[in-house]
Structure formats: structure tokens, C-alpha cells
Design a protein that fits this description.
The complex is a heterodimer of chains A (268) and B (247). By secondary structure, chain A is an alpha/beta fold. Chain A has 7 helices and 10 strands. Chain A has 2 domains: 1-81 and 158-259, 3-Layer(aba) Sandwich (Rossmann fold); 91-156, no CATH class. Chain A has helices at 50-58, 97-108, 112-125, 141-154, 171-187, 199-205, 238-267; strands at 5-16, 24-35, 39-43, 65-70, 73-74, 82-85, 159-163, 191-196, 208-212, 219-224. In chain A, helix 2 crosses helix 3, helix 2 (97-108) runs parallel beside helix 4 (141-154) and helix 3 (112-125) packs across helix 4 (141-154). Classes of the chains: A alpha/beta (268), B mainly alpha (247).
Amino acid sequence: MTGAAQITIAGVSHVYRPPRGRAVLALDAVSLTIQRREFVALLGPSGCGKSTLLYLIGGFLPVEQGAISVDGRPVSGPGRDRGITFQNFALFPWKTVRANVHYGLEKLGLPRAERQRRAQALIDTVGLAGFEDSYPAQLSGGMKQRCAIARMLAHEPDILLMDEPFGALDAQTRGLMQEELLGLWQRTPKTVIFVTHDVQEAVYLAQRVVVLSARPGQVKAIVETGFDRSDPGLLKSKPFVDKVDEIWHLVRAEAIKAQQGRRESSAS
Amino acid sequence: MSAALGRYLPLLLLALTWEAVARLGLVSSLALPALSDVAAAWWQLLASGELLTNGAASLYRAGAGLALAISIGGAVGILMAWWRPLLVVAGPLVELLYPMPKSALIPVTALWLGFGDGSKILLIFLGCMLPVTIGAFNGARGTDQALLWSARSMGAGRLGTLWDVVVPSALPEILNGIRSAIALSFVLLVSAELIVARDGLGYMIGFLGAGGVYDAMFAVVLTVALLGFAADRCYRRAMNRVLLWRL
């Protein structure tokens, strides 16, 4: 792995306190270093705290124990250097595709002509040309996520935080979007932290897969992947399938643990 | 056109029945003057200018009261969702006042501000504020956290998200609250003008009724009903236009 450490996560624990019910330890002493322009997948059973870790890096949740720094500065809140997409797209429903993509550029204070140029280029890149004046409710799931990706990229963040971005899409759209995201990342490399519970997706997209344990989330394993994604037969090749299998077993053990934990807590 | 005709056919039938019942002497003309007499009286009131001056007075009061109710009520509701201390202070107050019959405030506002415009505007403001406040509060509280976070990650400050995300998220519920407020404003206005006023449509109804001029009284009652109907129709149309993005 070349390049300098960009994101450092050191001994981060996080307690989730729901408005009702008891507090839950979501993350337990997680440490991780992510290089500049690296594509990392956070993988784990549901409820393992992988999204929580992403939100902590994003500065949306306060770091209460441990430390997270980005480019040497401790994270103290959200910032333009870290863009985010969500599973449910989180587009502004009252804004058109164009206005959604414009939002970050307006906040940057760019002149109108420059905004237009950059927004249109992105809309073209993600294949939404012709839908500029549509509202999110008029778009399919895949188109919504394309729009969300264009919006995230508009103000050119260094780091992309992606929270199960393709989790709500059908299998075909999902495969297509994976290829397109990879293409985008290869053309303009950025640091990507990609949360998913889909093992194959993680192995296909990421250079490193971080497997988190069942709650409380701990780093259970870090697996180097980094296959040659330009190979059209990759998904069926033996090394790829073996790697998916290897990681799948790690995750499966955790998923079983998570389920047992749930059963115990519901029995108590 | 024929669809509209079909829709309002029952009303047309009702009007014809009214006219027939009154003309045939089935009910006393004191209780129900013939619709044609009511129409003639309406025309006279319009020609004399009485309807317009009194109507203008009423609409001014309703408009001013509603404008205050919407701007202040909406702001209070959103801030209640945004800033906990305000919820702690204002929340119980809203809960207490919401089910109160607002017409009970008529003598109170008259005591404070007299018989003129001020007491009606205050009454409508106080009476119509809560539906807007509650709509704004519920709408703002339901703001999707992912939208707030997205806006923050694109450079919006905490205060910036209030205007950029919270207000538009709350808008559908605010607009529904305003619709209730408009209907309520007519009720309050006419009641207040019936009791404590020297002009306005409600005052005319009371004045003409007390004087036994029943066809003219009915003419004003119908005018109020039609104004309420028209206000609601126009408002709904405007609301659908604003909420076009919901599809």
C-alpha cells in the first residue's frame, strides 16, 4: 500500500443511546488507518456499527472515546472534505436533479456559470442527462443514487463516505452501479469508505476489506483484496471466488453470534 | 365543463327546491325568504356599496390575523422542533390551549382592544396560530436526519440547514395547518363581528337579522359561505402547485 495515511481511527468506542431503552455499546476500541486514494469496504453483519463508524468519520456523531483524524486534524464536525451518500439516497425531494447537484456548489459560493458547467458535467457523467428538471420522486432507485453521487461529487470532496449506497437497488442496477462507481474512482481517484453487508460487492470494489465483528463492533480482520477489475471473467475466477468465500465465512460466524446475542437479549 | 356541471348539480337542485318551497308557501317567508328575493337583496347591497365596504373590513381583519398567525405560528413551531428549551416552555402551553374553544377569546380581545379591527386581528391571530404551529412542529420534527447530514457535508452550517432543509421538510404539514387556520379564521371572524363590532360581514348579518330584513341577511350569509368556499379552493390549488415535487 503506497501513499500516506489520510484517516486515522485510534481506539474509537461509541455508545448508542436510544431515546427509549438502554444504551448499547456499538463500537469497541476500533483502530484503523486509511491511505489517501484507497478504496476500503467496511463489512459486517447488520447492527455491527459499520454505519456508526462511517458517521463518526463524517463528523455527524461526536467522537466520545478515542480519536479520529483526517489529514492530521481531529474530526470535530461535518466538512466539505468528506462527501456522503446513503442507502435511501437522501436527495432533497423538493429540488430537481439539477438543483440537488447545484446545492453544494451554491454553498461554495461559485458564480452561476461555473455552477452550471460543473453540475451539467456531473449530470452527464452519471448518465442523468435529460432528467435535469425531474424531481427525485419521478426517478427510479438507480437514478436517485446516480443523482446523489453527482451531488456528493459536485463540491469535489477528497473523501467519499458511502453508506450501503446500492443496498436498496435491484441486482442488475446494483451490478451496473458498481462498475460505474469503479470507473469513476479509477478516472479520478479519491479515498472511498464503502459500507456494505454484501461480501461480493466488498471484494469486487475495495482494495481492502475491513471485517467488523458482531456488536459491539470490533475490527475482526482486514483482508487485502485488490483484484484486477478490468478482467471481465473476474467474478467467476477462482482467486476471486475463494476470497469471497474466505471473507464470507468470517462474516457468517459474526452474523450467527449477532443472532444469538439478539436471542439472549430478547430472552432476558 | 360538463364535469363541473355534474359536480355542482346537487347545489343547483337545492337552489331550485329552496325557491319552490318558499314560493309555494310551504314555509313562512320569515323563516326562509325565496332565493330570488335573496338574490335581489344581494344585488341591492352590492349596488349600495354596503357589501363591499363591510366585506373589505372583514377580509382585512382575516388577512392580517392570518398573516400574523402563519408567520409567527410557523416560526414558533419550527423553533420548537429545533431548540429544546423552547419546546419545554411552549409545549405545555400549546397542549393546553389547542383544545380550547377559541371563540371564548372574543370578549377577552374586545376588552383589551375594543370594538375595532385590532381585537378581531388579535383574535384571529391567537385562534389560528396553533394549527400552523402544530403543523410546523410536527413537520420539522420529522425532518430526515440524512438530509440534514447531507446538507452539512456540503457546507451548510447548523443554522443554514434550518432554512435549507428543515423548513422545506416541514412545508407540507405547515400548508395543511394553514388550511385549517383559514377555515377557522372565518368562524372566528363572523362570530366576533356578530357580537362586538360596528362593521364587517358578521356585523351585517346580526344587524339585518335584528332589523327583520331577512332576505338581505340571507344574502350576507350566502356571501360568507361563498367566500369561505372560494378561499379554500384557491388555497388548495396554490398548495398543490407549491407541492408539485410530491407528485
